[in-house]
Amino acid sequence: TFGFDQNQNDGSISLNPKKQGDLPGITEADVLQSLQLVPGISSPTESATNIHIRGNTPDKNLILWDGIKMYHQGHLFGMISAFNPNITDRVNVYKSGTSVKYSEHISGVIDMYSADDILNKTSVGIGANLTTADTFIKVPLVKNKLGVLLSARRALTDVFDSPTYSKLKNKVFQNTKIEQNNALVQEEELRVLKDLFSFTDINAKLLWQISDRQKISFSSLFVNNTLDYTSVDFENEGSNDKLDLTNNGFSLNYENTLNDRWKISSTIHYSDYNSDYRLNVFNDGEDSYNKINTIEDFGALLQAQYQIQQNSHITLGVDFSDHKVNFNISYPQDASENEIENNALKTTSVFSEYSLQLNRLNLRAGLRTNFFTTIDQINFEPRFYVGYQLNDFNKVNFSAEVKNQTLSQLVTFEFNELGLDNNIWTLTDNDDIPILKNYQLNAGYNFNKNGWKIDIESYFKRNKGLTSFTRGFSSSSVQDNYTSGSSETYGLDVLIKKRINRFRTWISYSLSKTDFSFENLQAIKFPGNFDQRHIIAVASSYKLKNLQFSLGWYLATGKPFSVPNGIDSFTNSDNEIENSLEFGDLNNNRLPTYHKLDTSVTYDFKIGSSKKINSRIGVSVLNIYDHKNELDRIFDLEESNNQNEIVQQTVVGLGITPNFLFRISF
């Protein structure tokens, strides 16, 4: 149903975008948006890429594209995923019970693969919606031996201002300089000299089937986002904001089935992430501000699998990674405020895993040992999964795992008035920023009979080594240093699927509770920033010949936020009076309940004299009844008439948002 299936061998969820059909509110099967139908996976900020899996923030997820680690996965600041759905062949998602071959992230795993079949003839696809245009081509260079896949997508945002882009842009830039400047432009107090935004993603893949037993693939990915915004008043005072976000990478994969018992595989991968924001202010002098964050990630993985018997095997592996991370926050007018950090970490891991598949039993047990050379530390990650088929209709499963993470994001002050890209990737130093550690237990039940599929999973997660930096917790922390803490999440995920003739129905429900413990911020536990107790998604689709229609309703508890008690005045070290917001309990209020209704309609037909060109048109509408959903409330101080006042800003989700699709393939 909707292209999702549960792997009975390890409890993972597999997704085939080509089999998804219509999803409510989506013209195309965007992978990261599609996953938000799965219980336990959500986006409290209403974006495609800001995915939270069972209480953990997005930076805790391991996201792979053909083995390339992705540190930036979106366009238009996360509203659109950076992965072209038309070349995505399969996706494996782990919420728990992760194999020991996956490393370096303590939450879920989203493992994506592009098409790996060598076609006998050339295949071409071209399409566009109201935000992007794309094309792909699959070419067999040598029949059944050598093939190449190329794809590219580009924003149409700098070509024309579509209704869809206007809605997305207004949502992203609300409460920022751009929204404020638009009001000044209408009042003829300001001119916008430059307002350029564009994004691109390019994929290339080479496939070589050396023999029946050996194959090699080489994949590369280029993701780029660019923003250039300049505004001035009529005295030629103003500012220029430039932001470049890129995530490039490649992977080389080799597989060899040596004989009936031995199989080896190896992967070499490289990822290069760069976030470069620069602000220049034009006034009597010239102020500027720069924030640069880079990651270089090189890794190599070697695995050997030995078939012990027909139903059991053991996997042995070695994994090496080398991370170089830099961030540089600079104020050229006041170098004392600069923050510069350069870190590097080399990790060598060895792992082994045993798998057994019997008629009723599926078992996988493994151990991963990590040697962190730079900080001279060793840790262990045992992982276990077992599934047992009680009878033809009922199955139970249990999993337990330990994970560690050395590279994560800090949330910083909103240095730039765009309010964008304020997260900084940084490496552990095992001091201010400790190694993140996750412990998780999961127990589940599956029922499958007469077209009914019911999955129920309960879980407990504990994270240690969480780090807050400045305003990391709902703008409530006034400290300028690192603060460490932990979190606990209890949850229940329920999924019900049913197909009746041409109707498909999907109901998912998540119950979860996440509590933070940060003794330096608050003596008692408090709700996590993105804690949403209840999330319900209901989706139905109907297919009649070439016409598909889908309708989906989404409801979620509002996330927590902190309300200030008042204003605190104090004298700083320079004997100057400063004012700051004074908070009581952290995250002591909740936003109103979130809800919306989405729909999509697509129609497939053939064109051309020989009717060999497959075509599709589609229309989608998000938030049909235009409900004003609050996503966040932010409080700040503002001086008026020589007095400080507390000002509240509300972040609102997308209103009614249409989109249109046209696609051909041959």
Structure description:
- 4% of the residues lie in helices and 62% in strands.
- It is mainly beta.
- It has a 22-stranded antiparallel barrel. The protein has a 6-stranded mixed beta sheet with strand order 1-2-9-10-5-6, with no helix packed on it.
- Strand 21 and strand 22 form a beta hairpin.
- The radius of gyration is 26 Å and the shape is globular.
- The model is unreliable at 413-417 and 470-480 (pLDDT under 50).
| Main sheet characteristics | 22 strands, antiparallel, barrel
Calculate the mean pLDDT score and round it. Answer: 88
* Rounded radius of gyration (Å): 26 Å
Shape: globular
> Oligomerization state of this entry?
single chain
Q: Can you give the helix content as a percent range?
A: under 10%
Q: Which stretches of 5+ consecutive residues score pLDDT under 50? A: 413-417, 470-480
Query: Which class of secondary structure composition applies to the elements?
Result: mainly beta
DSSP strand tally: 41
- The proportion of strand residues reads over 45%
The number of helical runs is 3
Cα distance spanning the termini: 27 Å
Descriptive labels:
666 residues, mainly beta, six-stranded mixed β-sheet, 3 helices, 4% helix, 62% strand
Outline the secondary-structure elements.
Layout: E1 4-6, E2 13-15, H1 31-34, E3 41-42, E4 52-53, E5 62-65, E6 68-69, E7 74-75, E8 80-81, E9 88-94, E10 109-114, E11 123-129, E12 132-142, E13 146-155, H2 163-172, H3 177-186, E14 191-209, E15 214-232, E16 238-257, E17 262-282, E18 286-309, E19 312-330, E20 339-357, E21 361-372, E22 377-389, E23 394-405, E24 407-411, E25 423-427, E26 436-449, E27 452-469, E28 482-500, E29 503-517, E30 526-527, E31 534-544, E32 547-556, E33 560-561, E34 564-571, E35 577-583, E36 589-590, E37 594-607, E38 613-622, E39 630-640, E40 643-652, E41 657-665
Parallel strand pairs: 5-10
Antiparallel strand pairs: 1-2, 2-9, 3-4, 5-6, 7-8, 9-10, 11-12, 11-41, 12-13, 13-14, 14-15, 15-16, 16-17, 17-18, 18-19, 19-20, 20-21, 21-22, 22-23, 23-26, 24-25, 26-27, 27-28, 28-29, 29-30, 29-31, 31-32, 32-37, 33-36, 34-35, 37-38, 38-41, 39-40
